[in-house]
Amino acid sequence: MEKIIRTPFFEIGIKNYLYGDEVEVLAKAADRAAVQYDVDVLMIVPYADIRRVTQSVEKLIVFAPYMDSLYPGRGMADILPESIRSAGAKGVVLNHCEKRMTLSELTAVMHRAEELDLLTFSCADKIQMGRSLAYLHPDIINPEPTELIGSGNISDESFIRETMKAIHEVDPCILVEQAAGISKPQQVYDLICAGAQGVGVASGICTAQNPCGAMEEMVKAVRAAVDEMAKLK
Questions:
Q1: Whole-angstrom distance, CA of residue 180 vs CA of residue 175
Q2: CA separation for the pair 132, 116 (Å, rounded)
């Protein structure tokens, strides 16, 4: 698989806010928005819904929320990398603040991801952690301050500049996403205009009165930011 995601991209984190039919409905809507606004959209899908989602979409890029480093065989209740790949996932999230990993675990899982040509999306809660993770060369790093998650407040421009600089000094090929606290399309627009290569939203979409509508407005905001920046060049 060619490991390319166009920037700026938009990412939707389902976590356990939605499940079953609700996930599929949102995924189909996100797939349509990705086509309509010509924006790459990633969705982190609960394990049980990965296959049904990947079979229902064409452009949406599906990630699993985690995996273990084991190989096929024994390992009751562990998340087998081959299983999520077979279900249609194109990548995996690692070290989210709700699923911390040790350095040795991260290294082992990233090795397995490379074996299976899965994209890796690593999370960090501090700038220095983001820089340290960059030495493992994941495809995407999300340096989101834990205290902002679900808060409605977002990182400022200085945080964006500092995280981009710290990570890209190590590996300029890593995509740097900004997330945590995003609940409005204007925030998405502002972050993209400030230089974010991607923007991620979870509760701001999944707990909205109309998740599909909230998602579409945010993807639309990505396109608006891209078009505005193009005018300024």
A1: 17
A2: 24
Q: Convert 31-62 to b/e letters by CB count within 10 Å (16 or more is b).
A: bbbbeebebbbbbbbbeebbbbbbeebeebbb
Residue ranges per structural domain of the chain: 9-232
Give the separation between CA 163 and CA 194, rounded to whole angstroms: 12
Which of 9-13, 14-18, 127-131 comes out lowest in average pLDDT? Answer: 127-131
List the Cα angle 181/187/188 in 5-degree steps. Answer: 100
Q: What is the fold, at CATH topology level, of the domain defined by 9-232?
A: TIM Barrel (3.20.20)
Residue 173's identity, in one-letter code, is C
CA distance 228 to 69: 43
pLDDT tens digits for range 42-79: 999 999 999 999 999 999 999 999 999 999 999 999 99
pLDDT given for residue 1 in this prediction: 42
Quick one: which of 6, 18, 15, 34 has its CA closest to 215?
A: 34
Is 70 exceeded by the pLDDT of residue 146? no
CA distances (Å), origin 135, targets 35, 48, 77, 93, 129:
34, 32, 30, 17, 10
Closest to 140 (Cα-Cα) out of 173, 110, 111: 173
